[in-house]
Specification:
Layout: H1 3-8, E1 10-17, E2 20-24, E3 34-38, E4 43-50, E5 55-59, E6 71-78, E7 80-83, E8 91-92, H2 99-105, E9 126-131, E10 138-140, E11 144-151, E12 154-159, E13 165-171, E14 175-178, E15 184-188, E16 191-195, E17 199-202, E18 211-213, H3 224-228, E19 237-241, H4 248-258, E20 263-269, H5 273-285, E21 299-304, H6 311-329, E22 333-339, H7 341-354, H8 368-376, E23 380-383, E24 396-404, H9 414-422, E25 425-426, H10 431-435, E26 448-449, H11 452-462, H12 473-497, H13 504-521, H14 535-557, H15 562-566, H16 570-575, H17 577-580, H18 587-612
Parallel strand pairs: 8-21, 19-24, 19-25, 20-21, 20-22, 22-24
Antiparallel strand pairs: 1-2, 1-6, 2-5, 3-4, 3-6, 4-5, 7-17, 9-11, 9-14, 10-13, 11-12, 13-15, 15-16, 18-23, 23-24, 25-26
Helix pairs in contact: 6-7, 8-9, 12-13, 12-14, 13-14, 14-18
Bound molecules: adenosine-5'-diphosphate and magnesium ion.
Length: 613
């Protein structure tokens, strides 16, 4: 940069309006989304509007004590993530500053100091790098150069950055290196470039891939109502709308703990500080059921509490998704949870208000839909770039699970309604269910998922349980849905004339619906056995209930009365399967099935002898 260009990179503050500042003096050189820094306070901000005589910047930190005429410099690049070994188990703020290290540095600071500059990835930690390529080979963006064991369970593939290519002229030997040490060099025409283990990627741009493909595998969550009725695919999108206290955070956390993704990115966005602190505490305690090591070893947390400035909320959302895409590109299944996207939307509204933009619905800016879609559209299953030098067919996926907190639980408000357009699954949390302690409080009539058709082959193939019943995963879903919807249709009638006055077959439906709700849909996230139901136990439990329904129908048609069926001893045992039979003791469910058939037979025999008398 020559002197005159440098001059054009500095400017001064000409107005301050909340977290927005107006800058003069750099209009000629600045681009939208460029970062600028208020030099005296070390505060970063992002350019959001450019006029011929001024530039508007939103600051990522609070603007207290900032004065007019203070100097700013244009950093000339948008907010980018530093990507490389050391991301896992990190806890970052919205602009990828390591929260833990900030807190360590300022031990007594109860809130974050402003203007702290710390590298996102440690500059002093050495990583054991193993080269996977030999010199002289042609390398393209996305190719795997080598590998680092980032945590005991996760290998971190060092990929050539997306846009580069060239002949590998040099690669280090296996050994311990800092992330800033030179690892390899690529020569393209006459230019030779040196690379270390770090890549930078601008957060607003999605990382390129070869091809997006249709999702076909479910993300198994271990939550029964989700895995059977409202499943998501790996690479899918889902919104969890729900009023305060309906269980959004609990669902997000249990997904983070139990779902079968390799890598979890958890964004705590604008929720109350103590809630995020709880989340952090929770996470640091959890032992990963898959590896028996701390779960944090495959998690990246981005925490952005409600007392941090609103403008950092958007940054935290896009920072998170960029890190998620980076691991997707290594061929991992990544799940990203954002809690709550409403706080992000509210920050857009606040800033739009400061800018005096023409508001659309309920004060939200007209670009709310395009913002939300630019977030959810980054989900998917992809063939990553590169891999020309490996035979392995590589697929990575990124699943996005965003919670939405509609004020007073009204799903027609703009954020919920707009989000609904961009997601393929919708888990509607119902305050009435939560109030009745029916958790998870997913309303089975209002929730939906478009994924069953995508993943039914996978699920049906995986389910080999009790073939003689002729019930696959898809059939089970259909039957359960049917029972629950008939129950709903009967609701008014039941209230009017009383359950005992309904025909017996309808009473049976009500009884089975009750079994499904109490024994299957209700699931305690805090119970050591009930918190996670694997696929086999899921199928065992639901097939037992449906088998009971089928046999009971036969009994009714033979003249046995519904009360006798309700009195079967097996009923109580079925209701307790969730929290009494661990996944690895499936034989107990097999035994219950035998017992069910025995009890039904006994009932038949005693009935026919009674009739004979
Ligand atoms: N699956 C669940 N099992 C047991 N309790 C639950 C479950 N989901 C929610 N709860 C209860 O509801 C409370 C509120 O849930 P939370 O996730 O914090 O709500 P939200 O984030 O929607 O405000 C929790 O503290 C817990 O007591
Ligand atoms: Mg919450």
């Amino acid at each position: 940069m020559n002197e005159s260009q440098k001059d054009n990179q500095t400017g001064y503050i000409s107005a301050i309006n909340g977290s927005l500042i107006e800058i003069k003096g750099i209009e000629q050189n600045i681009r939208l989304h460029d970062l600028v820094k208020i030099t005296t306070h070390n505060i970063l901000g992002e350019v959001i509007q450019i006029y011929s005589n001024k530039t508007i910047v939103q600051c990522y930190e609070n603007t207290n004590n900032i004065r007019l005429n203070e100097k700013i410099i244009n950093l000339g690049e948008p907010l980018s993530m530093e990507l490389g070994p050391g991301l896992l188990s990190s806890i970052y703020d919205g602009i990828q500053r390591p929260l833990e290290r900030i807190l360590e540095q300022f031990e007594n600071a109860s809130f974050l100091k402003r203007g702290v500059e710390l590298p996102s990835l440690s500059r002093t930690k050495k990583w054991h790098f193993m080269p996977l390529l030999e010199p002289d080979i042609n390398v393209n963006g996305g190719d795997i150069i080598g590998v680092v064991q980032e945590t005991p369970s996760i290998k971190h593939y060092i990929l050539a950055p997306p846009m580069v290519s060239g002949i590998l002229t040099y690669i280090v030997e296996e050994g311990d290196y800092l992330i800033i040490d030179e690892i390899y060099r690529l020569k393209n025409k006459n230019e030779e470039n040196s690379f270390n283990m770090i890549q930078r990627w601008s957060v607003t741009k999605s990382r390129p891939f070869k091809k997006k493909i249709r999702p076909v595998e479910p993300l198994i969550t271990g939550t029964r109502i989700i895995d059977l009725l409202f499943p998501i695919a790996k690479g899918g999108t889902v919104a969890i709308p729900g009023g305060f206290g309906t269980g959004k955070t609990v669902i997000q956390q249990s997904l983070a703990k139990w779902c079968d993704a390799d890598i979890i990115i958890f964004i705590g966005c604008g929720e109350r500080g103590n809630e995020i602190a709880d989340t952090l505490k929770e996470f640091s305690k959890i032992i990963d059921p898959k590896t028996n090591r701390p779960l944090l070893e495959r998690v990246v947390i981005i925490a952005n509490t409600s007392n941090m400035p609103v403008s950092a909320r958007e940054a935290s959302i896009f920072s998170g998704i960029t890190i998620a895409e980076y691991y997707r590109d290594m061929g991992y299944n990544v799940a990203l949870m954002a809690d709550s996207t409403s706080r992000w939307a509210e920050s857009l509204r606040e800033i739009s208000g400061l800018l005096e933009e023409m508001p659309a619905e309920e004060g939200y800016p007209a670009y709310l839909p395009s913002k939300l879609s630019s977030f959810y559209e980054r989900a998917g299953v992809v063939y990553p770039l590169g891999r020309n030098n490996s035979n392995k067919e590589c697929i990575g996926s990124l699943t996005i699970i965003g919670s939405v907190s509609p004020p007073s639980g009204d799903f027609s408000e703009p954020v919920t309604a707009t989000t609904k357009r961009f997601v393929q699954a919708f888990w509607a949390l119902d305050a009435r269910l939560a109030y009745a302690k029916h958790y998870p409080a997913l309303n089975w009539l209002d929730s939906y998922s478009n994924y069953p058709e995508y993943i039914s082959d996978w699920c049906n193939k995986r389910d080999t349980l009790w073939p003689e019943l002729n019930l696959d995963w898809f059939d089970c879903r259909n039957q359960v849905n049917e029972i629950l919807s008939i129950e709903n249709d009967l609701k008014n009638l039941t209230q009017l004339i009383g359950e005992e006055n309904l025909p017996e077959d309808q009473q049976l439906i009500l009884f089975c619906a009750k079994l499904i709700k109490e024994g299957f849909l209700i699931q305690n996230a805090f119970d050591d056995i009930d918190n996670y139901t694997d696929f086999k136990k899921l199928m065992g439990l639901i097939k037992l209930i449906l088998l009971l329904h089928k046999k009971a129908k036969e009994l009714l048609s033979q003249g046995i009365i519904i009360e006798e069926i309700k009195d079967l001893k097996i009923i109580n045992e079925i209701l307790r399967i969730g929290n009494s039979i661990p996944n690895n003791e499936f034989y107990k469910i097999e035994k219950l099935k035998e017992k069910l058939l025995d009890e039904i037979n006994e009932l038949k025999i005693s009935y026919s002898t009674m009739k004979g008398k």
